[in-house]
Structure formats: C-alpha cells, structure tokens
Amino acid sequence: MPRDKLTIGLIWCLLLALVLAGCGGKSNNGSKDTVNGAPEPKVTLTMMHLWPAASSAQQNKLVEQIIDEYENEHPNITVKQEVLENEQYKNKLKVLSASNELPDVGITWAAGFMEPYVKGDLFAPLDDILSGDRLRDKFVAGTTEAYMVGGKTYALPIELNISPIYYNKDIFAKYNLQVPTTYEQLKQVIQTLADNGVAPIALGNKDRWTGSLWYMYLADRIAGSDTLKKATNGTGSFEDPGLIRAAAEVQTLVDMDAFNKGFNGLSNDEGKSEFVNEKAALYLTGTWELPNFTTNPDIPQEFKDKVGFFKFPTVAGGKGNINSWVGGPGVGLFVSEASKVKEEAKAFVEYFVSKWGEDSVTTAGVIPATKVDTANSNLPQLYVDLLNELNNASSITLFADVQMKPGAAQVHLDMIQALFAKAVTPEEFAAKHKEAAEKGI
Description:
The protein is α/β, with parallel strands linked by helices. Helices cover 47% and strands 14% of the residues. The protein has 18 helices and 16 strands. It has helices at residues 3-23, 57-73, 86-98, 111-119, 127-130, 169-174, 183-195, 209-223, 225-233, 241-255, 268-276, 290-294, 301-304, 342-364, 381-391, 400-403, 406-420, 426-439; strands at residues 34-35, 38-39, 43-49, 77-83, 105-108, 148-149, 152-153, 156-157, 160-162, 165-168, 199-201, 280-284, 307-310, 324-329, 332-335, 395-398. A 5-stranded mixed beta sheet has the order 4-3-5-15-8, with helices on one face. A 4-stranded mixed beta sheet has the order 11-12-10-13. The chain has a 3-stranded mixed beta sheet with strand order 9-14-16. Helix 17 runs antiparallel to helix 18 (426-439). The longest helix has 23 residues, at 342-364. The radius of gyration is 26 Å and the shape is globular. The relative contact order is 0.16. Mean pLDDT is 90; it is low at 1-32.
C-alpha cells in the first residue's frame, strides 16, 4: 500500500476510535453501562431481612418486586438476599456484628436497639441520601428522628405502626359480645369466652415482646403515657405504683385463663396461628400484620372478612387516654460501614425506601413511614380505619424493648416472660427493672 494511503487510513481509524470512545456513557435508563469503553464492573449487594414468604407473604413479595425492578434498571448489580424469621434475624445480626461482617444492607430497629451498632461504627450515616432529591421531605414527621444518634441518621424507616387488638367478629356475635371500651368490659369478654371453652387471647410469648405489649398498654392506661415513657427511657422508674399495678393486672389475666394454652412456650407465629385458625378470639399486635388480614391471597377471604379491631380500653381511675397507642416507627434499612460497595448500597437503600413507600399500601397493605396519597386508592376498610386512627393518635409510645438500652431491654423481656409465668411478683418485676436502669446497661 502506498505511504500516503496508509497515512490516510490510520487517520480515519484514529478518528473512528475517538468517535466510538465518545459514545460510551450512559444507557437509556440513566445508569452507566461502560467504563472507558468496557462494561461496568459487576456488583453484588448482600441484603438480610425478616420477611419469610411463609409468615410475611406480602412483604416478601414486595421486596422481591423492588429488587427485580432495581436489577432491571441496574444490570450490573445483583442483590443477594438472606431471609430469616424475626428472632433468628436478631440473633444473626449480633453474631455478624461481633466479627464486623454485617450484610451491605440490613434491617434494624430504632433507638436503643440501634445504638450499640452505631457506637461500634457498624452502621454508616445516611444523611446524604435522606436529604437527596428522591427522599427529601418524604417522611412522615417524627419518623426518622428515632434513627438518629449524635445528630446523624443511621437508618431509614420503612414502616409506621400502632398496635390494635384484632378480634374475630363471628366469635363475638356467637356469644353476643360487644366491643369493649373499658378494661372491666374487656375482662367480661374474656370471662365469657373462657367459660365457653374458647381461648380469649392468642399469644406466643416465647418471643416476649408480644407479652410486653399487654404490659405496656396496661401501664399506659393506668399510669399514663408520660410515666411509661419515662420508665422505659430511664428517666423514671418501673417502681411507680401505677406500673406495679399494671404488672399485677397481667397476672390477673393469666389467672383468668385469658391466653391460649402453652402461650409462654409458643413463638409469635405459633400464637398468631391460634387467631388465624379461629381458635382464639383476640390478638394484640402491630399493624405490620395488616397484610394477613387484608391483602394476603394465602389467607382465606372468608376469615379476613371476620377481622375487626378495637383500641385498648381505658382503665377506671387510670391516667391513660384511649387514643394513646403503643407503636412508632417500624423497622428501617441500614448500610454497613464496612461494606466494600457502600455507595452502591446507599443508592439501593434510597431506591428501596422510595419504592416501598409508593407500593407498600396497595401491594402489601403496610402503613409506610413515607407520605403517601391514598385518596385515589381502593383500600380495604380495615386499613383505612387504622390509618385514620394513626393520624388521630394522641400519643405513640415506642415499644419498650426497642426504646431501652440493650441490657435493660434484655432484662425487660426476661421479666415479661417471668411475669406471665408468675415466676416473679409485680414488685420483683419492678425491682429488676430498677436494678438494670441503675447499672446503665
């Protein structure tokens, strides 16, 4: 080939290479698909959560849906899930934190539960994505504050919960029972059911936080929400007379055979099955169970139509308000400080929280922590009624075991099980809490 033709050919090849290099950039979905002309590196994110398909079908379905959408929009990213039941999840989180091997993205609870992980530099601050365009001003007021430590936000909530007493309307009708508004009326309902061989209340107290809900409501209605909050956050005492009386009332319920047989040895899921299988008439739990009573296709519609709810009744002479609830921000998502793909994990959390808020209402029947317009949604009446109750709550007291420091929370949970087993007196129950508070654990 003549020299001048060779030179022209080389120039054209160089120009073509420059043009091709300029074309590498962003794909149509806005994510980079090349780096210097080569495919973007593959990234695997690990995510650990607590919604097994068997017990949390709608939440599990929603997680799968969000992950599928994210992977389709970000073809270089794969999200690998590990799914555990609630108590197994908590135990594994402790084990993984000891070796600083937390998943890139995981589930945490707020306040006292989260604090040791933050102080151990295990969770990454998420204020940058909280103030980003996708999530700025999207959260319901007061929800993200529970995930703040030292002025920084270390997880983003995805749920907001209150805890009603669900009841079986058909069982109530069979025994001519009315929805109680006072504690004495509730005890009359319990007595009637027990006399007729029906387990009044479904409870699986092996997990202990389940029994704590009963104690907390009695404490709230007798001593008032301020007294309960001060006791749980350490500024007050469980030896308050109203709180001791609440512990005594728990044991009164046990003496009345208010709970299903073997309740202290059953998990929450086993206790819940007593209600779902219509062997028990009442079930006190959070609104995270709403999907099983509204949208879960695996639960017969015939049963879902039977489920109603009522607020925990007032106690005569008590300081509590019937519109005061036990609940608060539900679980949130954290990013591991030690993650080798921290920025990718943050981007996924930002996307996940936004999508969860948009889809959780209609897909899962969950009340999200982000603001959602439900005006044009065709929602189950049970969901609408509980959402209205949440909006009209006079106060919401955060779950005791979440609010307390880890050591004190462990004492509380152990004492709850002992209280229900009548292995301690109400006074001993209070004294153990005081001892834990004084140790500052």
